[in-house]
Design goal:
By secondary structure, the chain is an alpha+beta fold. The protein folds into two domains: about 80 residues; about 70 residues, no CATH class. The strands form two sheets. It has a four-stranded mixed sheet with strand order 1-6-5-2. A hairpin with a 2-residue loop joins strand 5 and strand 6. Helix 1 crosses helix 6. The longest helix is centred in the N-terminal third of the chain and has 17 residues. It starts with about 25 loop residues before the first helix and ends in a 6-residue tail after the last helix.
């Protein structure tokens, strides 16, 4: 049975005297904080765990030894940390193992080479804004397709083939789905996009 990520008697909120930042906390706590800040409200265990998996994979793809270094060097990659939103700061300022035991478990799983990959190879994720923004969403003109109907948790369907041009050829879709949980879809680059544009996975 899935339990809420917090079971406690008091509600912990960030205080004005909390000086913790993404640069000062452990990698496990930072991953947990980003997951909490990025996940939808009332998100499932799988949704949060997949975000952690995708985050770690993306940071490693860029060659960073830790997620902390990735966030410090590429601040615009994760919107919830630029600057840290309320949910991120709540975890940064917490006793992680006591206040957010499930997030702690999820972060440890993402860092474990033998852990479960809930994102199924995903590097990117989109939430409800993918549906609400529609054709104005950043990823719409890129072209995306669902490789499995179960991934389409927002019921939006594929974009039309975009017939985009790269240095080495044309391609119709930049992103293809790897998983979908709650209100979050997970993506990776299509092989046709990487071949046509000479783009590395997860970059």
């Amino acid at each position: 049975m899935y339990l809420p990520e917090r079971i406690r008697l008091t509600c912990i909120k960030p205080t004005s005297n909390c000086a913790e930042t993404p640069a000062t906390v452990s990698e496990v706590k930072l991953i947990a904080a980003i997951v909490y800040g990025e996940a939808s409200v009332n998100s499932t265990y799988e949704e949060k765990a997949a975000i952690a998996n995708a985050l770690v994979r993306k940071s490693k793809a860029y060659g960073y030894s830790t997620v902390n270094n990735f966030i410090a060097s590429r601040k615009k990659q994760i919107s919830s940390t630029n600057p840290p939103n309320l949910r991120v700061r709540e975890v940064l300022c917490s006793n992680l193992e006591m206040d957010f035991p499930v997030l702690n478990e999820i972060a440890l799983n993402a860092l474990d080479p033998n852990g479960v990959d809930y994102s199924n190879g995903g590097c990117f994720w989109d939430g409800n804004d993918l549906k609400t923004a529609g054709t104005k969403h950043l990823h719409y003109p890129w072209g995306y397709k669902f490789t499995n109907p179960s991934h389409d948790v927002l019921n939006i369907g594929d974009t039309p083939p975009m017939n985009l041009e790269g240095d080495l050829g044309n391609y119709d879709y930049t992103l293809e789905s790897t998983a979908g949980y709650g209100h979050t879809v997970f993506w990776k680059y299509t092989q046709e996009f990487m071949t046509a544009t000479r783009t590395k996975p997860c970059h």
